[in-house]
Structure formats: C-alpha cells, structure tokens
C-alpha cells in the first residue's frame, strides 16, 4: 500500500500531523503562543530562510490555524495570530514542552517555567484522564471504531483488538 | 542567525520536536501506542518505504523512546516497544488525536474512540491546568526564565515579557 498524502488516512492524528507535524510549524506555533506575531519575529527566533518561513506561515494560515492581518491600513506588514483553532493546540504544545523538561532538561532544569498569569501558580503536569478523572497509563487505554470510521478502519480495529491484551509492552 | 540543528535551542519544545517532530515518527508512535511492534506492522499501516521506516525506527531507538528486542533468540525479527520515556508521550499523542477529532472530523465524528480499558469511560478532553486545577487558556499562561535558561534565553524572556500584555491576540 502506498499513500501519497496523509489526507487519505482515516485517523485524527495523521490528519493533524499533516497540518502541523513538522519541526518548523511546531516552533512557529510555540512562538505564536509566546505572543510573537510578525514575520521578522519568527525569522529572528527560528533562524530559517524566508522561503521556508513564508511557506509554513502560508500553510498554517490556509489551515485556519493562524490568521493574517495587516498591522495598519496602507502598510505592507502583517501579524500572524492564532485563531480559536490554533489556540486549541495549547495542550499539544504544552505536552511537548513538559516532555522535554522531564526527559531532556531534567538535570539543568527547565529553560522556561510556565505559570498562571493571574495567580503565579505553576502549570500542572498534563496527564491523560478518563471522564471520571482517573489518570490513565497507555496500558489502561483501549480503543474502538467511532462514528467516523471507514470500513478499512473498522477492520483494522477488529484485528488490532484481537491481539490487544493490554499487557505492559505498551 | 543560522542554526544547523535544533539541538542548539535552549528550549524543551525545540529539543523534543527535534526527536519526534516529523510526520512518520509521530505515526510510528501512534501505532506503538495501539500495540503494534513489528517492522512489518508499521510498514503495512503507514505505507512508507523500508528505508524511511528503518531510519525512523533507528532514530526513535537511539533517542531511547523505543526499545528494540529480538522476538525470539536465533530469529532475526524484532519488536519495537515504547520505553518509559516513550510511554510518557501519551499526552502529546492524545492531544493531537483530540484536536483532529474536534477540528477535522467534527462532522463525521471521530474515526477512533478511546476509553478506559477497565471501566469503558471515554477519555476526558485534555486541558492545560495550573497546580490548583484551574483550566488555562493561552492568554492566562505567562512564562519566566527557569533554572536551565541560558543568558540568551533570559534576554529573550525579558524582551518578550516587556511586550506581553496578555491580550486576546493569543
């Protein structure tokens, strides 16, 4: 089976990753969450070529994750700001930061500490919980075909579940 | 400023993204969480070339995210399984899935539904909270230099905070 595009995948992760699953897009999003919005900001912070940056900003704007606005009428300078769709990537960005804090910067401590702006409280560690608030490890998570599953997905789920023992290998 | 590697960034997100911030690595991790472990599993599900798959599995193994074990002694077949470091990427993977469920598969519904294996409860929506349990939107999150900050990071934080009004642009 050969696929030319992740657009063909009946999978929320694949489709999301198709939009933001590259190093520069994720770093642009990081900086947008920090409040940076101008081409020159991203360019200076990331050190990428204008061509690559233009392409990434365009793709994120086309995806509805960033919104491009003129800084002032009559001036050819623009802000790129997170839309509601983009702001909803905060859990993804924070979970990537926290993983790096723990597994890469464990010895020296985190380069950046994030806090509640109003109270100064530190952020809690992100965890996967069920609707009753129970924290789940990978082995405690199971899956089933949902309403948006294609026939192919349903068959894959049946076959995966048949060999899914929930053992500690996960 | 030109950088050749994200390894030079004093940033947890950049360093994490350097390890897993590409489409195929994230899809391999997705499948590892589903319980798939063999080269042929990943190959069949992702439809990528053996060369690319080999390189990605090698990189994830070198990073300590996957562990490569022989299926049985004397047989040249291997399992690739998540280590503790790899399992700790669950919040990242789930937050990517949930974003896609909401923003890409909103109409047809999610292709896959995740549940607590023991109780059948659905997963809760991942949110960023502070240590007191308050859910935070991007505009409610602020940042400061941490113990692992370099002088360059400290300067960037000072300059960013000077223009950081916490307005709704974020």
Task: Kindly report how far apart the N and C termini of chain A lie.
Answer: 26 Å
The major sheet of chain A is characterized as: 2 strands, antiparallel
Indicate the radius of gyration of chain A in whole angstroms.
Answer: 20 Å
What is the element string of chain A, with H for helices and E for strands?
A: HHHHEEHHEEH
Please report the number of helical segments of chain A.
7
CATH topology of the domain at 1-88 in chain A: Arc Repressor Mutant, subunit A
Mean pLDDT of chain A: 92
User: What is the CATH class of the domain at 1-88 in chain A?
Assistant: Mainly Alpha
Q: Which structural class fits the helix and strand makeup of chain A?
A: alpha+beta
In total, how many beta strands of chain A? 4
Shape of chain A: globular
Largest interface: A-B, 100 and 101 residues
* CATH superfamily grouping of the domain at 1-88 in chain A: Winged helix-like DNA-binding domain superfamily/Winged helix DNA-binding domain
What is the chains' assembly state? homodimer
Q: What is the share of helical residues of chain A? A: 40-55%
The strand line-up of the biggest sheet of chain A is: 1-2
């Amino acid at each position: 089976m050969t696929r030319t595009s992740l657009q063909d995948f009946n999978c929320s992760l694949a489709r999301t990753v198709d939009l933001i699953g590259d190093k520069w897009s994720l770093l642009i999003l990081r900086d947008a969450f920090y409040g940076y919005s101008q081409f020159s900001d991203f360019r200076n912070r990331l050190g990428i070529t204008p061509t690559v940056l233009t392409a990434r900003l365009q793709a994120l704007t086309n995806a509805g994750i960033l919104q491009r606005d003129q800084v002032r009428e009559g001036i050819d300078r623009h802000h790129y700001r997170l839309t509601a769709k983009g702001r909803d990537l905060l859990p993804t960005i924070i979970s990537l930061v926290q993983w790096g804090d723990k597994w890469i910067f464990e010895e020296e401590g985190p380069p950046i500490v994030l806090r509640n702006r109003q109270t100064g409280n530190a952020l809690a560690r992100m965890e996967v919980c069920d609707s009753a608030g129970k924290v789940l490890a990978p082995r405690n998570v199971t899956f089933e075909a949902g309403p948006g599953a294609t026939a192919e997905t349903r068959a894959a789920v049946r076959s995966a579940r048949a060999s899914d023992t929930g053992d500690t290998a996960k």
